[in-house]
Structure formats: structure tokens, C-alpha cells
Design brief:
- The chain has about 150 residues and is α+β, with helices and mostly antiparallel strands.
- It has a domain at about 65-150.
- It is built from 3 helices and 5 strands.
- It has a 5-stranded antiparallel β-sheet.
- The longest helix is centred in the middle third of the chain and has 16 residues, at about 65-80.
- It is elongated and about 105 Å long.
């Protein structure tokens, strides 16, 4: 028998035209295995029958607007309650913001409307801020914040 037939291996160099082409071919054919496995990609889409919330009409109030209402409500309630040295505490349950109203300066407009200038802190998820504000009593007798600007 010839020596090659007895199990000797010979080193065969790959053809020059096929060098480095096997990896890209495998990479391109690999995604096709998902199709052959019976995977239904359509079932993986979002379920449009589920609703996580439902809002009918109208526009929700902005965070600043609801914080202003919480500050005004605290100023109205503070007239009947005793305030501590830290000022008038306020909290907005809708935004989880809270703070203290300090440095209240009362004055009266020419038409006799009572107003207040104040400084307040606001603590919420994005940090602590210092604001200057102005509030006046409306026709119903409650305080309404007309200006609230960041310092």
C-alpha cells in the first residue's frame, strides 16, 4: 500500500479564493436558524389590548401649577394653625414635592387686596430649589400664587 493510504495526513492549504469567507457566511446564515426553529416572531409583539392608564379629555396640570396650589393651600391653612420656626410647611401629594415657606412680607394693593411676598424651598426628585413668590387673596378669600420664580 502506498504510504498515504496508511493514515498519514497531509497539510492542505485552503484555496486562495476562499480564505476568510467562512466566518461571514456563518454569521449571515445564523439568524435563519430562528426561522427554521418555528419561532413565531409575531407573537412577541406588544399586546395592544392592555391599557395601563386611561385619561379622558383635558390636559393634566403641570408640576409647577400643582406646586403653586399646594403652596397657596398651605398659606391659607397656616392662618388658623400655629407655624413653627421653620416656616409654613407644604407638600404636593401629586408630585411628592415639599418645602417650607419663609420670609413672608405682607402688603396691600391699592384696591385693598392683601398680598404676600415670600421665599420657599422645594425638594423633589431632581434636588432642592429656592424660589421667590408672590400671592394675593382671591375673591373667595383663599391665597393664590401669582408668581413663583427660581433663585
Amino acid at each position: 500500500m502506498p504510504r498515504r493510504a496508511q493514515g498519514q495526513s497531509r497539510n492542505v492549504a485552503p484555496l486562495p479564493c476562499c480564505r476568510g469567507t467562512l466566518a461571514p457566511v456563518i454569521f449571515l446564515l445564523l439568524p435563519l436558524t430562528a426561522c427554521a426553529s418555528g419561532l413565531d416572531v409575531g407573537r412577541l409583539a406588544a399586546d395592544s389590548s392592555l391599557k395601563t392608564s386611561s385619561v379622558t379629555g383635558g390636559k393634566p396640570p403641570t408640576e409647577e401649577f400643582t406646586d403653586e396650589r399646594a403652596i397657596a393651600r398651605a398659606m391659607t391653612e397656616a392662618e388658623t394653625a400655629q407655624t413653627g420656626e421653620g416656616g409654613i410647611e407644604w407638600k404636593n401629594a401629586a408630585t411628592d414635592a415639599h418645602g417650607s415657606i419663609v420670609g413672608i412680607l405682607s402688603y396691600t394693593l391699592e384696591d385693598g387686596t392683601p398680598c404676600r411676598r415670600f421665599t420657599t424651598t422645594r425638594q423633589r426628585f431632581d434636588g432642592v430649589g429656592l424660589f421667590r413668590g408672590e400671592a394675593c387673596r382671591n375673591e373667595a378669600g383663599a391665597w393664590q400664587v401669582y408668581a413663583l420664580e427660581s433663585q
